[in-house]
Amino acid sequence: MRSPGEMRTRVEPGGDIPLAQVKNLTKRYVQRRPFTRTEYAVRALEGANLTIRRGKTLALIGESGSGKSTLAKCLAMLEEPSGGEIWFNGENCGELTRKERFSLHRQVQLIFQDCASSLNPRMSALEIVGEPLAIQKLGTKAEREQRSREWIVRVGLAANSARKRPMEFSGGQRQRLAIARALALEPKLLIFDEALSGLDLASQAAAIELLAELQAEHDLTYLHISHDLQLFPRLADEIAVMHEGRVIEQQAAATLLADPQEAYTRDLLMAMPSVESILEERPA
Q1: What's the average model confidence in pLDDT over 20-35?
Q2: Are residues 23 and 87 in contact, defined by beta-carbon separation less than 8 angstroms?
Q3: CA dihedral defined by 41, 47, 52, 58, rounded to 10 degrees?
Q4: Which terminus, N or C, of the chain has the lesser number of Cβ atoms within 10 Å?
Q5: Residue-level pLDDT at 228
């Protein structure tokens, strides 16, 4: 956070400048041992570097505990990093004021795997989609309701479902509702933390088709965190690999799947099912 009057670093967005960059990011959590209550540090991120290009889809893979979700939360400003920098749309997020950071929350939205737990069961679909608009104080109540209805329909839910509660929807429909809530703010970056992994194949395919349409229409940028390698040929322009809190490799999806450079990446791909069929499925 900068002091009043201090110059802020800014790079004008556009051209080859990425939408978001993570530079040498570190994150440590202090925990206490049982019985002795002595403190110790858990290192979730250790000098992570990542580049997210405008209008593209980046898949982030790695074993459980490698730091993927922590990196996503730092990007979405739900966690404060211990060190390093996060740049978004040409600005260093660490130099933003509290008010500017609040405004920036509109531009980065995070969608979780268990979307049901992130949807208030007492709210209607209309209220859920409109809630972030109210928090950001965007438009009048009537305008917020109108925009919410439009997004409910746009993500493929019936117009008459606006008054339904989350548990009245199927899993795939709840995921669409979570997407509508995120897109109502017109963000630039959507982060999906295993958001498609829990869906059945039909719902997964429908969600992938919807996301592709929305990306083309609204020039959206996606970061997909997933362990499901079979999703990548249909989703990703690039793939990044995390290991022990660092991004050890980031390449074009076809290049990484065909010729990974790191031994850990090769082991990870070999441990995942149907690598050969995935390479065949990758469009030329």
Answers
A1: 89
A2: yes
A3: -70
A4: C
A5: 67
Q: What is the per-residue pLDDT for 278?
A: 44
Reading the block at residue 92, the tokens are 């260093």
Which domains are delineated in the chain?
A: 20-281 (3.40.50.300)
Strands lying side by side in the sheet with 57-61: 108-112, 189-193, 221-225, 57-61, 238-243, 246-252
Span 30-54, pLDDT tens digits: 888 887 778 778 889 999 999 999 9
Read off the pLDDT of residues 208-227 as tens digits, 9 standing for 90 and up.
Answer: 888 899 999 999 999 999 87
CA nearest 107: which of 219, 244, 255, 241?
219
| Residue 109 to residues 71, 104, 132, Cα–Cα distance (Å) | 14, 10, 11
Beta bridge partners of 61: 241
d(CA 188, CA 197): 23
Cβ–Cβ contacts within 10 Å for residue 259, how many? 10
Are 128 and 181 within 8 A, CB to CB?
yes
Question: For 75-114, what is each residue's pLDDT tens digit?
Answer: 998 899 999 999 999 899 988 888 888 888 889 999 987 7
Distance in angstroms (rounded) separating the CA atoms of residues 276 and 258: 9
